[in-house]
Amino acid sequence: MKLDFNSLRLRLTAGVAAFSILGLGSLASWTGWRMQQILIENHKKNIEEIATTIPRDAELYSKMASREQALSQAIKNIDTNNTFLWVESAENQILAKSNTLMNSSPTQENQLIALKNIPIKPKVIQLGNRYFVFCSDSLKISGKQIGYISVAQDITRDQTMFVAMMQGVGATSIFVIVIMAGAIAFYVKRSLKPLSQLSQMTEVISADDLGKAQLYLEKAPTEVKQLAETCNMMLARLSDSWEKERQFVSNVSHELRTPLTIVHGYLQSVLRRQQNLTEIQKEALETAASEADNTIGLLQDLLELARADHGNLHLNIENCILNDVVTEVVDMADKCSERNIKVEASTEIIEVKADYTRLKQVLLNLIDNAVKYSEAGTPITLKVTRKEEEGCVQVCDVGYGIPLQHQSRIFERFYRVDEARNRAGGTGLGLSIVKTLVEGMGGKVSVRSKLSEGSVFTVCLPV
């Protein structure tokens, strides 16, 4: 499935997922930082307490033993496996120190002792792959400063557990984020389903369905229901406007056809008594009669389309021999045109369901179209074939051709291709009537064309 980066579904999913990831990531980061701070603070308090206990105990023991023995006893009282203490004189001599740290080497202890600028406040440092919280303070016994006491507490185990825990939290967070993203995508898809349904319903609405079209969604959010109601009101207004437009065209066509027929009749009557007319008068009357005849034809076409729009186009569907219809149409066209019109058909008799008179009208219209839009002297060919359950007639010319971008609209009303087709003087209704009649008989019409090579109009009807 193609990913549409402009879709509302993708935008909502990505937006909600991004905010969720940001929120969960920030919460996890803050939680991890805060837990590490609490862990370190606990160790710092232990360090500070040890740093204050040693001088007090050393002073008590100094009353009963030597200074070195007092220091050793004081350190021994609080000696643990994860704490390393040492007392250093002002001359950088080690006066006393605790036992070796568990799982440590003399090298690491020497590195701790060799550290300079040891802070008074507890601080976390890393030596190799181990972590320590350490600090230093001056050591006074009986009010006399004898050196400095330094305390280093190994927190590697706690730090390792903390890192492992954070890795677990990170993996769990990623899993939760993936699950949330999937759940969000599913929820957004379900939430937007009414809009998809609305879109599908409006896609199938045609001009003929405007009056009957109603959009209704049962389990839809209030906003979508309001949108559907607004669309229904818009469809009602469009239906009303479309109906008024069609009624106007029908009324105008009907009202104008009668007076124009009368005018055309008077012009023909005057032309029949042309012995009293000058050449200029005769030419003017012939032009007026020709234009009146064209206008009557246009109005007749408009009335045909108006009847079809209102469902009043009556067709007498019967079984017709397609070969005979084509032969008769070609004979009629030969009498009205000097063009070479020929038929290509097999000996097979093809019987179709159609209105005999309307089918002749369709084919004559297509032949007239081919004559208008092809060079004089070029042939026009009608090919009669059978395709499965359809009988087809192809009207082929060697004319100007129709540009590809116009072929999809060639059957629209009043649509005419520029250049050569405009010069031919058509009204733009002929092909629209052809399409209306053929579809009314249950068939279909199509066009295939190439510029400067000609066009092929194909009419197919059910056998």
Report on this model:
- There is one protein chain.
- Helix content is 55%, strand content 18%.
- It has helices at 8-62, 67-77, 106-114, 156-203, 222-272, 279-309, 322-336, 356-372, 404-407, 420-423, 430-440; strands at residues 83-88, 94-97, 123-127, 130-141, 144-154, 318-321, 341-345, 351-354, 380-387, 390-397, 444-450, 454-462.
- The protein has a five-stranded antiparallel sheet.
- Helix 5 runs antiparallel to helix 6, helix 6 runs parallel beside helix 11 (430-440) and helix 7 packs across helix 8 (356-372).
- Residues 419-424 have low confidence and may be disordered.
Layout: helices, strands, pairs:
Blueprint: H1 8-62, H2 67-77, E1 83-88, E2 94-97, H3 106-114, E3 123-127, E4 130-141, E5 144-154, H4 156-203, H5 222-272, H6 279-309, E6 318-321, H7 322-336, E7 341-345, E8 351-354, H8 356-372, E9 380-387, E10 390-397, H9 404-407, H10 420-423, H11 430-440, E11 444-450, E12 454-462
Parallel strand pairs: 7-9
Antiparallel strand pairs: 1-2, 1-5, 3-4, 4-5, 6-8, 9-10, 10-12, 11-12
